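Practice problem: Membrane protein
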Amino acid sequence: MDTVTILLSSFILSITGLFVFIWSLRKRLFDNNVAAATVIFSEGEIGQVEEPSASPKQMEGLQKSSGPDERQPLDAAQKAHLQEELLERLQADRSTAFVSFVFLSCAVVWLIVASLAGLTSSIKLHEPDWLTQQAWMTFGRLRTIHLNAVAYGWAPMAALGTAIWMLPRLLKTELIGGRFAVLGAMIWNAGLIAGLGCIAVGLNDGLEWLEIPWQVDILIVIGGSLVGLPLVFTLQNRRVDHLYVSIWYMGAALFWFPILFLIGNVPGLHIGVEQATMNWWFGHNVLGLFYTPMALASVYYFLPKIIGRPVQSYNLSLLGFWTLAFFYGQVGGHHLIGGPVPGWLVTLSIVQSMMMLVPVISFSVNQHLTMRGKFATLIYSPTLRFIVLGGMMYTLSSIQGSFEALRAVNTVTHFTHFTVAHAHLGLYGFFTMVMFGAIYFVMPRVMSWEWPYPKLIAAHFWLVVLGFSIYFIGLTTGGWLQGMAMLDASKPFMDSVSVTIPYLKSRSVGGAIMTLGHLVFAYHFVAMALRYGPRRTGAALLHTKPAASVLVGA
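Answer key — structure tokens:
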């Protein structure tokens, strides 16, 4: 079978499957309930905003900012049913409180470790002789420590902590088997500490995203398996008939990641060109089939809950899920353009990369339509401000990634800092921003305590937005100029290096501001966990309307 036939068959199969799925949605074969988007709400909650720990006056102010109250009056029986559901929700939150706290605490610790390692390695790019007395402080090792602390520390701990908290709410039952998750988190973190220690002393497997020695990876596998048990147990004991789209995303992510991690770490299974192909298959898919679904699951839960409006199009949310599953698997091959790999493999990757516009546009349209008329709530809700911005960054990073896969663009950006900027746009601008927002929503429920210093939430937001803007714009510009210089045969290679120096310095400036924002966030997290600071009676909102609500003690 020739290359053209293979590509055409793959394309036709994907498109056929997609249209069959769209037809099934139109016929409602997947869900006979036209109100599937409302399952995350209790009776009478639609039209009511939700922000943790808010007083009645503050909720009234936030309610006004989101438009008129569209709730219908409830009779006595409906009110009794609502109170029963709210009590069950409270029990569900209590069942996850300690488990989620363990995961989120670990996430914050790894965020700080990764930030400091990343900032130090960034400075070394324009100050190469800085801190070179110790081998583990050299760029090659420190940058790898940064990557792994993010990939296996901050990102999964934050995502799993948020997922464990959401799951009982979505299934309207208590978490079952939380002790397995706590034990799994301990083993996972022990493996990560051992893995980073191995990298620091010069022991690693030599593959990006897979540097931790496979012998140590066994601990992460065991830990991850234990974490998955309570998610399965709770799902089996659900009290809902319909599985909301967030469950689809979380369940798929927790199914995909073990397969990716196992195949990527089997020793001696991949060699030569096949190993490089597997490396980018894993590296890209761990972002698109684990971090991305977990973040999208959070967006589809928190955004409607905060504004009190179901997602605009439930069918679009499912379309986004299934097209992500259909098209993302072979995207990573575009990192091998120009390498000694089969041409059909690269071409297939480019086609799949462009097809990723379908799930991205589906999500983007859905988010915008859901937020239509409610954008004023961004002024008041810290969760919403982070999550909506993160959703916008998902759109931007995915569209940029699709076009970056085209050979004409890839010729310039390959092997440059442009690719680094793009990777951070996805994992930081999208995923991390969404996780920040989720943590601001979840922690008051976990701790039964408010964020003590609302101004620190605003400071955190503006610091990371400013820092990341400098970081991304600087690296994107410098990376493009670097690529153009490398393509110019009349220029020596060192010109492509020297042209990036000002932009690498801007990267360090942006990274320093982002790290400061992370330190502010970590301090606020610890203060809340220890219940330091003033005790307030209202929610940790970014602003309050004068005459509508007052933050006591703020």
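Discussion: The two ends are 70 Å apart (CA to CA). Students who identified this feature from the tokens alone can consider the problem solved.
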